[in-house]
Amino acid sequence: MGKDKLRRFAEVATFKNVIQLDAGKDYKGKWATKFFANNNPVVLELACGKGEYTVNLAKMFPHINFIGIDYKGNRIWRGAKTALEERIDNVGFLRIQIETILEYFAESEIAEIWITFPDPQPQDSREKKRLTNPTFLEKYKTILEDDGIMHLKTDNDGFYAYTLEQITLLNLPKVKETADLYHSDIVDDVLSIKTYYERKYLADNKNINYVQWRF
Q1: Any idea which positions bind substrate (predicted)?
Q2: For residues 197 and 160, is the Cβ–Cβ distance under 8 A?
């Protein structure tokens, strides 16, 4: 592991806005009151990477709590450091494997879940790793409130098609969908938040897919 990664791992352990592994279990059912010290809604971004979407959502909606989830501490470091430097108090980060999410959040605790540009896991042998696999969807359904919203934003057409297929098979109500976000009539300030990788995709004239649904 490079020196920069080691430094970030060490530094992220000192950040007050980052909770790691088993320590997060103490917040289950109490993220708003115990971590954020308020009663505002809690929104998750899964596989948040550097946390660009999480941080920008938090800036746009100061009366909502946002948690970015990823397993790689050296990635979380960037978003967490930005939030600390800019004194964005309604954002936190949780370093866990997403497979274990039910150990960290209670039933109906979450208002919305964002999945932005996840690894599409294109190999058939890795279907169970896809974040919109039915096993994952069942977990999200558990922690979302009754009218909770799911968002997926991805450049990968195959992963988008796979997700639409799962939504259809499970008879879930779609709210919005487009295979070309920036040439659609649903794009707005929230959907226009761009991560580093999304800017690269757009520079290569790649279309951006988006779907919003409920359980």
Answers
A1: 155, 195-198
A2: no
List the binding residues for S-adenosyl-L-methionine: 45, 70, 119
Q: What is the SS3 assignment for 140-207?
A: HHHHEEEEEEEEEEECCHHHHHHHHHHHHHCCCCEEEEECCHHHCCCCCCCCCCCCHHHHHHHHCCCC
215 residues of the chain, pLDDT tens digit each: 577 888 888 898 899 999 999 999 999 999 999 999 999 999 999 999 999 999 999 999 999 999 999 998 889 999 999 999 999 999 999 999 999 999 999 999 999 999 999 999 999 999 999 999 999 999 999 999 999 999 999 999 999 999 999 999 999 999 999 999 999 999 999 999 998 889 999 999 999 999 999 99
Residues flagged as binding site for substrate:
155, 195-198
Report the predicted TM-score, pTM, of the whole model to 2 decimal places: 0.96
Q: Are 179 and 157 in contact (CB under 8 A)?
A: yes
Catalytic residue among 4, 22, 119, 180: 119
